[in-house]
Amino acid sequence: MYSSEITQASNFVKGVDTSFLIILGISFFFLIFLTVLMLVFIYKYNRKRNPKATQIEGSTKLEVLWTVIPFLLTMLMFYFGWAGYKPMLKAPDDAMEVTVYGRMWNFMFEYENGKRTDTLFLPKDKPVKLNLVAMDVLHSLYIPAFRVKQDMVPGKENNFMWFEPQKKGTYELFCAEYCGLQHSYMYSYVKVMEDSSFQSWMVDTTQVVAENIESPTATGRRIMQNIGCFACHTVDGSKLVGPSFKGIWGEEVTVTTGGEKRQVLVDEEYIRRSIFDPNADIVDGFNKGLMLSYEGQLSEEDVENIIEYLKTLH
């Protein structure tokens, strides 16, 4: 069950909410005040009550008032907005760092010990710095309960967000920038745990052992699920962003290589090249540049497991 209480879920909730409520309050005040004033003027100065228009001379006092008051209100809103935003700009030196990879269309979280997940696990009451890496197009990491959102810009250095989770629970995390066909499916969750539970999870080798006793086929499918392969490729023969995996193994496909079309056999060499150099051979009927390399993100063992899984998709 997901946490429904999001008040003070992070250290930035109070500052963001205060700024929002002040701006909302001022906006509602003027909406009501100006609407009432307009109705009064319509009633008091309609044609029946005021058949002859009265010329009103300029008033320096009024001009000063409607200049100074909006300026002061704007400065008030700016102050609270800046007070809530400024602490987000510098992460504490002792913050735990997690690298977030965003690509069409999934998030992957890598911890300092090399552990990778598709759900963000965090310790309660500990500062966390998320280093944001966009692998292809512009994404935006948004955690509504924590009141934090940051664009993930390809090639941008020192792109990060930080916060301190303050309530245990499970919270939504998703992409808030339209990034392509499956944008609406690009979501995950943040699971906040007590620090002791988190530390146990970090050093837990049960998952690794389980992966080792899984069949290569099951492991390959899990890896592909985690890195978002099924957002672009189907296993039922239907066409999506990329070619379907169904029945692909051992078949010949038409590809464009270096501007020339040719027939290639889908074997281990072809799969490896497609993973690490996806623009080398473009399957006929599909576009170049939609997939980026997984170089450095997948090991040789990962690729071998993926190949074993693809062999089963008859």
TrEMBL record:
<dbReference type="GO" id="GO:0004129">
    <property type="term" value="F:cytochrome-c oxidase activity"/>
</dbReference>
<feature type="domain" description="Cytochrome oxidase subunit II transmembrane region profile">
    <location>
        <begin position="1"/>
        <end position="92"/>
    </location>
</feature>
<dbReference type="InterPro" id="IPR009056">
    <property type="entry name" value="Cyt_c-like_dom"/>
</dbReference>
<dbReference type="InterPro" id="IPR001505">
    <property type="entry name" value="Copper_CuA"/>
</dbReference>
<dbReference type="InterPro" id="IPR045187">
    <property type="entry name" value="CcO_II"/>
</dbReference>
<comment type="function">
    <text>Subunits I and II form the functional core of the enzyme complex. Electrons originating in cytochrome c are transferred via heme a and Cu(A) to the binuclear center formed by heme a3 and Cu(B).</text>
</comment>
<dbReference type="GO" id="GO:0005507">
    <property type="term" value="F:copper ion binding"/>
</dbReference>
<dbReference type="InterPro" id="IPR002429">
    <property type="entry name" value="CcO_II-like_C"/>
</dbReference>
<feature type="transmembrane region" description="Helical">
    <location>
        <begin position="20"/>
        <end position="43"/>
    </location>
</feature>
<feature type="domain" description="Cytochrome c">
    <location>
        <begin position="215"/>
        <end position="314"/>
    </location>
</feature>
<dbReference type="InterPro" id="IPR011759">
    <property type="entry name" value="Cyt_c_oxidase_su2_TM_dom"/>
</dbReference>
<dbReference type="InterPro" id="IPR014222">
    <property type="entry name" value="Cyt_c_oxidase_su2"/>
</dbReference>
<feature type="domain" description="Cytochrome oxidase subunit II copper A binding">
    <location>
        <begin position="93"/>
        <end position="204"/>
    </location>
</feature>
<keyword id="KW-0349">Heme</keyword>
<dbReference type="InterPro" id="IPR008972">
    <property type="entry name" value="Cupredoxin"/>
</dbReference>
<dbReference type="InterPro" id="IPR008168">
    <property type="entry name" value="Cyt_C_IC"/>
</dbReference>
<keyword id="KW-1278">Translocase</keyword>
<dbReference type="InterPro" id="IPR036257">
    <property type="entry name" value="Cyt_c_oxidase_su2_TM_sf"/>
</dbReference>
<dbReference type="Pfam" id="PF00034">
    <property type="entry name" value="Cytochrom_C"/>
</dbReference>
<dbReference type="InterPro" id="IPR036909">
    <property type="entry name" value="Cyt_c-like_dom_sf"/>
</dbReference>
<keyword id="KW-0249">Electron transport</keyword>
<keyword id="KW-0186">Copper</keyword>
<dbReference type="GO" id="GO:0020037">
    <property type="term" value="F:heme binding"/>
</dbReference>
<keyword id="KW-0408">Iron</keyword>
<dbReference type="Pfam" id="PF02790">
    <property type="entry name" value="COX2_TM"/>
</dbReference>
<protein>
    <recommendedName>
        <fullName>Cytochrome c oxidase subunit 2</fullName>
        <ecNumber>7.1.1.9</ecNumber>
    </recommendedName>
</protein>
<keyword id="KW-0679">Respiratory chain</keyword>
<dbReference type="GO" id="GO:0042773">
    <property type="term" value="P:ATP synthesis coupled electron transport"/>
</dbReference>
<feature type="transmembrane region" description="Helical">
    <location>
        <begin position="64"/>
        <end position="85"/>
    </location>
</feature>
<comment type="similarity">
    <text>Belongs to the cytochrome c oxidase subunit 2 family.</text>
</comment>
<keyword id="KW-0812">Transmembrane</keyword>
<keyword id="KW-0472">Membrane</keyword>
<keyword id="KW-0813">Transport</keyword>
<dbReference type="GO" id="GO:0016491">
    <property type="term" value="F:oxidoreductase activity"/>
</dbReference>
<keyword id="KW-1133">Transmembrane helix</keyword>
<dbReference type="Pfam" id="PF00116">
    <property type="entry name" value="COX2"/>
</dbReference>
<keyword id="KW-0479">Metal-binding</keyword>
<dbReference type="GO" id="GO:0005506">
    <property type="term" value="F:iron ion binding"/>
</dbReference>
<dbReference type="GO" id="GO:0005886">
    <property type="term" value="C:plasma membrane"/>
</dbReference>
